[in-house]
Each structure stands twice: as C-alpha cells, then as structure tokens.
UniProtKB/TrEMBL annotation:
Cofactor(s), names only, from the UniProt record: Mg(2+); Mn(2+)
Known role: Cell wall formation.
Gene name tied to this protein: ddl
Tagged with keyword Phosphoprotein: no
Catalysis: reaction(s): 2 D-alanine + ATP = D-alanyl-D-alanine + ADP + phosphate + H(+)
Domain of life: Bacteria
Pathway noted in the entry: Cell wall biogenesis; peptidoglycan biosynthesis
InterPro entries with a match to the protein in the record: ATP-grasp, ATP_grasp_subdomain_1, D-Ala_lig_Van_CS, D_ala_D_ala, Dala_Dala_lig_C, Dala_Dala_lig_N, PreATP-grasp_dom_sf
GO molecular function: ligase activity
Domain called ATP-grasp: residue spans: 118-308
Species: Lentzea cavernae
EC number: 6.3.2.4
Compartments, as annotated in UniProt: Cytoplasm
Record-given protein name: D-alanine--D-alanine ligase
Amino acid sequence: MRGIRVAVIGGGQNCEHDVSVASAASVRQALDPSKYEAVALTIGRDGRWHGPELGALASGSLAAALDVLATCDVVFPLVHGPQGEDGTLAGLCELAGVPYVGSPLRAGALAMDKWATKLVAEAVGVRTAKGALVTSTADFTGPVVVKPVAAGSSFGVTLVRREEDLEPAVRQALELDDRVLVEEVLNGREIDIAVLDDPDEGRRTGPPLEIQVPGLFDTTVKYDGSARFVVPAPLAGTELKALEDSALKVYEALGCRGLARVDFFLTDDGFVLNEVNTMPGMTAESQVPKMFAAAGLSYPDLLDKLVRGAMR
C-alpha cells in the first residue's frame, strides 16, 4: 500500500519566503516515511510554482500544481504571511477539494489582519494594546510600536521612541502593507501559547513559552539565535489559567482550526493579546514544536496529529 500523499507547500510571494521554505523543508524531512509520502511544492517569489512532480515544461504553472494536488490526500500549506497564511491557500484547497492542515479561509484572513484580530479579541473580552490604524501619517503620542497590519515574522516592525523617527517607521511599514498599526509600548513579559486540535485528545493547549530578549523581538533577533525561549514559562496557576482561557477564546472567536500560536504580553494589569499566527514557523526549532516537545509530544508526532486531524 502506498503512503498517504501529503503536498507540502512552502515559499510564497512575501517577505517571509525564506522562513516558509525552511518550514516546508523541515516538515517534509520529519514526516514519517512509513506512513506518508511528502510531495514538495514551492511557490517562487514571482508566484510561479515549482516541484519535482511538475516536470520541466510545466514548472511555474498553477494548472500543473493543481494536477499534482489532485493526486494528494492532504495538503500541508506552510506559506507564512500574505498570499498563504491569510486564507489564500486554504481557499485554493477548498476549491480543489483537497483536505488541508490549518485554519479555513475566514480565520486565516481575520488573524492575518492585526486590526481585525484586535476587534474580535476585544469583543470576547480579551484585552489588546491601545493603538490606531493609519494609512499615511500618524501623530506621536510617546513611545510606540509601528507594524504593518498584515505581515509576519516581525518584518516592518519598529520601536519608535522619538517623534522624528515616527514618519520613517510608518513609511517602512507601508512598504509591506497599505495599512499600518501604531500601538502603545507594553512593558511586560512576552508569553506565547499554542492551541492544537488534537485528533486523539481534543482541543488543547501546549505549555506556555516565554521569549526573553534585551529589547524588541524583531526579525533580526527572531532568527539570529540571540532570543532565549523558556518552556514552560514560569507562571502562577491563576496566570496560566487566564492565559489558556484567553487563547482559547480568541482561537474560537476567529474560527481557527488545526493549530495556532497566540501571543501575549503579561503586564502588571494582566495578559494583553499581541497577535495570532494561524500557521506559525514549523521547523523543529520553532516555538510551537518546542512547546509541545516540552509536553512530551515529539516533532514528527505533532506533524502526524496535524495531518490526521486535517484528513478527519
């Protein structure tokens, strides 16, 4: 009997292309070969599709990629960011009639939009940072964080402490999106939690992870190895319960499915939501696999649960 064919899609047409390529390569390597046949598909920065099964003449063709998807039992879409994690690939899989790992189109689109996520979270009683949505310029009200509304891996994020630095920071963020968030700076511990729809145990959370960095957890720090991850994050019992409840509330309100990482700041006044990632980094060294590894769930077993959950 042949193994279950899993189309693993990486790459993409956004600033997270390299991160997505790394996630896809790691997942392909870790899928149990006795159960799964990993089928590599990569979306180039120019939007052209590539993969061994496309053939030299058809390489770049979406039509050829759809032909390959039609031969697969399930899709593992690992394109982080816009035109991937934002529901684009979920919509493609829905139209192609192939099951897929992760959130449906609506949840991906809502979670990728940081402004929409804030509105949904506040509606279910989960606090978010005070902020403003801007499309050109912003007023300086003190130290702020400037970020594109829809971008990941901290690309385009700037900590602004001086008024003269605000306009350049907004311009930089506008290079990645046509809308920008200007938010208050939160002082507190950065703590993330992962939510998993476990096909064996039901919906559950992994141990919380604390990110310890001397300054802003920006793109450079995120990938240069200088950040320290503490799992499980040291929390009081009441704090952990509040964190898990808030993460589950936001996950369910957005309509997420399969897996998501929900990021918070723990301030003196309690937890404040930062953002939600419906397809977070998925190398063995990424945050979510580290969280579940701390709970005794290995990386290959986590991937197995995600694939089986999607097929179910």
